[in-house]
Write a structure and sequence with these properties.
Blueprint lengths: L11 H21 L1 H38 L1
Helix pairs in contact: 1-2
Length: about 70
């Protein structure tokens, strides 16, 4: 599957820095672009709601599938 490559998750500190930087960019874009601001302000509540639903609807099954792959 990975042909000898080592697959690793991004370190948590790196993800946090990227998340913070992205949000700073979104804030800056929102200040100068009213269309972006409107889009972003509508996206954030939807995204947060979707994350909650995905934890219930998908996370458990995804975790099961990953564990099942190691058993076959």
């Amino acid at each position: 599957m990975s042909n000898g490559a080592q697959l690793r998750a991004f370190p948590q500190p790196a993800l946090e820095v990227c998340y913070k930087a992205a949000n700073e960019i979104y804030d800056d874009l929102s200040k100068g672009n009213l269309h972006f601001k409107k889009l972003h302000e509508s996206l954030v509540p939807y995204r947060n709601d979707a994350y909650a639903r995905m934890q219930v609807a998908e996370l458990g099954f995804e975790s099961f599938q990953i564990r099942a792959l190691t058993r076959t």
